[in-house]
């Protein structure tokens, strides 16, 4: 075997200690707040039939063409590690026969995989939380799912550092008219477009709006916006959404340059952005995708949702020094092997009472006390022969340096106090 030190694969990392606790806090908070809004948690497979994502993300998208981890399993089927989870949730809705029991409000949390260049807050294995409302066409659903995302950020203490930007993509008729206007505008500057955007001009001109190329961005600045092409129905949805966001107390600003390239996206598109993470500023984003369930073989099902990167949210927590402290232990210390049985019973009674507790596996009293101090334990419970016989322990407060005798059956109440 090679003596070379093994490391995690490029673009992945281990979550240990405070880093894991920040990660866990994001998910735990999102899980709790989404439940207040009536979301139920689903867990879908980490890998799916490749067609789920080819349909859900579009065959020509960068994710599908460049970033997906696709492989053939031993049975010859093409499977893909999930690069996102909205498509998986929609597939699960159809596969489990749930399109007859709508609406459904779904929360999820878990790892995703994309082969891209690692950068701040972006990894090849990363984690997302997400919320989807399936089967509701009304703009109230758009506003509520956004309000849930805002509430999660508020609860994490990071809402003031991010700004909600919203746009409308209109309905099919609005978008068709807007697409034609974009083709007319960009065709007049075809030679100045990047190579990618020249290809998009033929297939999906809306995606040029989202180009990162500096030359493209100068042309985009003069491009028409969708506002002039909205049908009365689309304009009504847009107007009602903004009123609902005001009613929910969610501050926002309009950004006509937020787009989604695939045809099944409609009406609302939004992003929570921050300047605290460098150039990659989006911490949560989503929109309405009324045609995606149909792409998965289900009936037409209006839906809306968002996804957020756990790593990026956790980085904001770190910047705000909001790391939750690890629970401090109580160490149970038998003086000799003879007292181990009593010490183990004490240990389990503490844990049953909700007190974090540990007992060392070896060592004399001095060594075990040294370990308790090294772990920053808050107390040590010393069980000697005399204490075991009388049903008591010596409780040593490691912060105050005091020691007292406490009956075993009063320990939980004493330590809670």
UniProtKB/TrEMBL annotation:
List GO molecular-function terms, semicolon-separated: histidine-tRNA ligase activity
Top-tier EC class: ligase
EC number of the protein: 6.1.1.21
Q: What name does the UniProt record give this protein?
A: Histidine--tRNA ligase
Q: Which PANTHER family match?
A: HISTIDINE--TRNA LIGASE, MITOCHONDRIAL-RELATED, HISTIDYL-TRNA SYNTHETASE
Which reaction is this enzyme known to catalyze? Answer: tRNA(His) + L-histidine + ATP = L-histidyl-tRNA(His) + AMP + diphosphate + H(+)
Q: What is the lineage of its organism?
A: Bacteria, Pseudomonadati, Pseudomonadota, Alphaproteobacteria, Acetobacterales
- Where does this protein come from, organism-wise? Roseococcus pinisoli
Family annotation (InterPro entries): aa-tRNA-synth_II (IPR006195), aa-tRNA-synth_II/BPL/LPL (IPR045864), Anticodon-bd (IPR004154), Anticodon-bd_dom_sf (IPR036621), His-tRNA-ligase (IPR015807), HisRS-like_core (IPR041715), HisRS/HisZ (IPR004516), HisRS_anticodon (IPR033656)
By its UniProt entry, which SUPFAM superfamilies does this protein fall under? Class II aaRS ABD-related, Class II aaRS and biotin synthetases
């Amino acid at each position: 075997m090679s003596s070379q030190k093994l490391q995690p694969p490029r673009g992945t990392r281990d979550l240990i200690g405070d880093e894991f606790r920040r990660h866990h806090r994001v998910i735990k908070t999102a899980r709790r707040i989404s439940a207040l809004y009536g979301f139920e948690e689903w867990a879908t497979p980490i890998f799916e039939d490749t067609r789920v994502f080819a349909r859900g993300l579009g065959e020509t998208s960068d994710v599908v063409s460049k970033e997906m981890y696709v492989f053939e399993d031993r049975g010859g089927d093409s499977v893909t590690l999930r690069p996102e989870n909205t498509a998986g949730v929609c597939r699960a809705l159809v596969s489990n026969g749930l399109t007859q029991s709508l609406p459904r409000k779904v929360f999820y949390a878990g790892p995703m995989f994309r082969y891209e260049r690692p950068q701040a807050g972006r990894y090849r294995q990363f984690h997302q939380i997400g919320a989807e409302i399936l089967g509701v066409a009304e703009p109230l659903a758009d506003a509520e799912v956004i309000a849930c995302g805002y509430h999660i950020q508020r609860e994490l203490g990071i809402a003031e550092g991010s700004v909600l930007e919203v746009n409308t993509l209109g309905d099919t008729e609005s978008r068709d008219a807007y697409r034609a206007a974009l083709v007319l505008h960009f065709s007049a500057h075809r030679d100045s477009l990047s190579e990618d955007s020249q290809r998009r001009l033929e297939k999906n001109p809306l995606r040029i709006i989202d180009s990162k190329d500096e030359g493209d961005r100068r042309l985009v600045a003069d491009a028409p916006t969708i506002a002039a092409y909205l049908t009365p129905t689309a304009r009504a949805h847009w107007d009602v959404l903004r009123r609902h966001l005001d009613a929910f107390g969610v501050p926002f600003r309009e950004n006509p340059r937020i787009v989604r390239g695939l045809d099944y996206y409609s009406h609302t598109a939004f992003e929570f952005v921050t300047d605290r993470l460098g150039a990659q500023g989006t911490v949560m984003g989503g929109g309405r995708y009324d045609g995606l369930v149909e792409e998965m073989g289900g009936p037409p099902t209006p839906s809306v949702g968002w996804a957020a990167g756990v790593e990026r949210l956790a980085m904001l927590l770190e910047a705000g020094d909001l790391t939750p402290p690890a629970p401090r232990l109580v160490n149970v210390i038998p003086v000799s092997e003879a007292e181990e049985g009593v010490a183990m019973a004490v240990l389990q009674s503490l844990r049953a009472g909700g007190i974090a507790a540990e007992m060392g596996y070896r060592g004399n009293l001095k060594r075990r006390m040294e370990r308790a101090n090294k772990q920053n334990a808050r107390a040590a419970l010393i069980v000697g022969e005399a204490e075991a016989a009388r049903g008591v322990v010596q409780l040593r407060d490691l912060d105050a340096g005091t020691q007292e005798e406490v009956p075993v059956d009063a320990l939980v109440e004493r330590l809670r106090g």
